[in-house]
Specification:
This protein is α/β, with parallel strands linked by helices. It is built from eight helices and seven strands, in the order ααβαβαββαβαααββ. α4 links the parallel β2 and β3.
């Protein structure tokens, strides 16, 4: 079983439709919950990824699963002159993101759109870099999504993925399991009022391809120069790949 088989709700709708509903439901509490549940570490993970993207000097970045725009805003602030297109399934998340972009004075450089990567009409080769922060485990079809991302990237363009992962250390695992399986779902239910969203979170993390398995999916989609780096005892992983010339 992979993350593609894990759905937020127990019904017969597509995963895409269920993920869209889940993020629409939790959008008002999303930023607050992220900060609290990661102890603020998500900010440091994003900063590291921004640096990796900045090294490629991109002019146009597509940020997929942009959510409320945190990563898109960080990219714009730290990569001079870059234009960012942020896309997400959830209209409620995008609407919050648009307000944050305006408040940050970045509306001339960041465009926020409701869009599904699997059916996106973004043109081939339109992006110098594509980023996905904490979103690939929500894709209904991971290989197809990576193939679409390859299409969006220009030859030589970079894909940078940040994704939550399970630690490999036997010392860390028991505490991680307690926190993700018991405490996070409890906090999520209390704050977001969605009974399933934060139970889905640890289930999808445990099921998503990780490490070399994730790189293999990227290579099957056509990417080259794939690599990954584990962070914070392995609870987060950054993946990089290039569209071949």
């Amino acid at each position: 079983m992979t993350a593609e088989d894990i759905n937020p709700y127990d019904d017969n709708r597509s995963k895409t439709d269920q993920v869209r509903e889940m993020f629409d439901n939790i959008a008002p509490a999303y930023d607050r919950l992220n900060r609290a549940m990661s102890f603020g570490l998500d900010r440091s993970w994003r900063r590291l990824a921004v640096g990796l993207v900045a090294d490629t000097k991109p002019r146009h970045i597509v940020d997929i699963a942009t959510g409320t725009g945190d990563f898109a805003i960080s990219l714009a602030k730290h990569i001079t002159g870059a234009k960012i297109t942020g896309i997400d399934l959830s209209e409620n998340m995008v609407e919050i993101g648009r307000r944050k972009v305006t408040d940050a004075g970045l509306a001339d450089r960041i465009t926020m759109m409701v869009d599904d990567v699997l059916n996106s009409q973004l043109p081939e080769g339109c992006a110098d870099a594509v980023t996905v922060a904490f979103g690939v485990r929500n894709f209904e079809h991971l290989l197809e999504a990576y193939s679409k991302i390859l299409h969006i990237l220009r030859p030589g363009g970079m894909l940078c993925v940040i994704e939550l992962s399970t630690p490999t250390s036997s010392l860390v695992k028991p505490f991680y399991n307690l926190y993700t399986r018991k405490i996070i779902p409890l906090l999520g239910r209390k704050i977001s009022k969605d009974n399933r969203a934060y139970s889905y979170l640890p289930e999808s993390i445990a099921a998503v391809q990780q490490g070399d398995e994730m790189l293999e999916v990227m290579r099957r989609a056509g990417f080259a120069s794939t690599r990954y780096r584990r962070l914070t005892f392995g609870v987060c992983t950054i993946y990089q790949a290039i569209r071949p010339l």
